Sequence to fold (548 residues):
Amino acid sequence: MKRDWVILVCGAAAIGALGWSGDNYFIRLLTILCMYATLAQSWNFIGGFAGYPSFATAAFFGLGAYTSGVLQNQGLPILMCWGLAGLCAAVFAVLIGGAILHLRGHYFAIATLIIAEMLREIVNTTPNLTGGGMGLNLPILRISVDVQSRVFLLAMLVLAVVTTAAAILLQRSRLGFGLRCIQQNESAASILGVNAYQYKTAAFGMSAVFVGMAGAIYASWVNYIEPPDVFDILIAVKPLVMVLLGGIGTIFGPIIGAMVLLALEELVWRNFLTVHAAALGVIIILLVLFLPNGLFSLLKDLSAKRAKQ
Amino acid sequence: MTVAKLSITNLQAGYGDVQVLWDISLEVNPGEIVCLIGSNGAGKSTLLRCISGLVAATSGHVVVDGKDMTNASEAGVVSAGIAHVPEGRRLFSAMSVHDNLLMGAYLRKDKAQIAEDLDLVYSMFPVLAERRRQDAGTMSGGEQQMCAIGRGLMARPSLLLIDELSLGLAPRAVELLFERLRQINKGGVAILLVEQDVMDALALADRAYVVNRGRVSMSGESKVLAADPAIQEAFMGLA
Fold:
C-alpha cells in the first residue's frame, strides 16, 4: 500500500513536470491522459471491484458537463460548478443504482447503456436551459492560452490523482473487501452479512462522482459542448477497454490502460478514423481471449519469474 | 424450560408464484444436532435460505432465542448467531483460504477473538492452515467444504446451518467432515444439517425431520426414525 502511494506521487510529479515544460500539443495529450485515467479508474470501482459491467460512464460524464455548463452560465464560480457537477452525478448514480443494481451481468450492462441515451434526449428537449441540439457555449476564461492549457492539465491531473487515491483507500477498506466478495460470489457475501445492495450502490456512486467532475472540467476546457459529444457511447466503452487492457480490479492497471489506449489513438487511429469503433471491438476480443487479466498481470508474472530465478 | 435456539412455526415461503414451503414447523434446541431429510426438491435448501434471510417468508414465524426474526436481514441473522454453510460451498474462489475464513467474521469487531477462532479453525482443519495462501478455488471439493464450514465457524455461531454436506465429495472426506461436526457440536454449537446420506445423518443427529413436498411429514428422534420401516424403504433402500 505504501508502495502504491509512492508510485502515485512520483507519477503525478512526472506528469506535472512534463506538462510544465512541454508544448501545447503535448499538454493536450497529458490532459486527455489524466481524463482517461479518471474515467478508467472510476469504471474500475463498479466494473472491477464489484464486477458489475457498467456503460453509464458516458451518462455521468455528460451529466457533469451539462450541470457545470449550465451553472457556469448562471455565473457561479468555476470550481464550485465542477464540485456540484460531481455531486449531481453521484446523487443521480445512487438514485438510478437503487433501481437497476438488482440486475446482474448483461441485464445490468444493457440497463446502464440506456441511461446516457435518456439524458441525451432530455438535453435535446430542453433547449431553453441546455441549448438542446444546438449545444452550449461556456464562459471563456480571461487568461492566456498557454496558461489556460496548463490550468486544465493541473485540474485533470489533480482529479486523476484523487480518483486513484480513492482506489488505493478502497482496496484496503472494509467496503473494498466487501465489493471483491460481491464480485466473486454475491449470494455468499450476503450470507456472511455483507449488505450487497448498499455496497453496490456506494460503488456505483463512486464510479460517478469523479466522472461527473471530469465532464465538468472537459466542458470548461473545450468551451463548447453538445449532446452527441459528451453523451458519446465511446466515452462508456473506452474506460472498459482501458481497464481490460491494464488489468481489472488493480490500482494502476487502469492508468496503464489509459496510456496504451491514448498512444494507440494518437499513433494509429488517426490514420484509420472510420474503423475506430471496430478497432476497439477487436481489442476487447483479443484481450478477453489472450490477456484476460491485462498488461498489469504480465508485469506481475515477469517480476514473479525474476524472483524465482 | 429452555428457550429453543431456533423455533419455526407454520412457515410458508417460495419463489414468486411458486410456493415451496407449506406450514413448516420445527425446533432446534441449544447444542442439538437436527437433520432434515427428504428427496430432491422437497424444500430443504429453501428452508435454510428462508432462515438466513435469502428467501422471504410469506407467512409464519422464525424465532431465534425467543426473538422474532421472520424476514430479518442476512446480517441480522448472522448477528443472532446463525451461520449458513450453503449448498455448493460458495467460496470466494479467487481469494485465499485465509481471506475466505476472515470474511466469515465480517460482522465481528473483536480482533483478538477473531484471531483465536482462526487458530481454532486451523487446528480443526490442518490442511487449511497448509493452504492458507492458496486460492480457495484451487482446492479439492472436500477441502473446499472444510473451508466453507470454517468460514461459517468464523462468525462464532451458536447454530450452524449446513446444506448438503457430502454432495459430490469422496467418502473419506465425508467421514472426516462428520467427525468434525461432532467435535464442533461438542463445543456447544447446535447444527441443522441437510444431508442426502440419510443413514450417516441419522447416526449423527439427535433428532430429525422428514420433509416431503414442502411439508414436514415425520419427525422424531433419529434412532426411532432410523428404525422406521417407511424411512428405511424410502431413503435407505432397505425393506
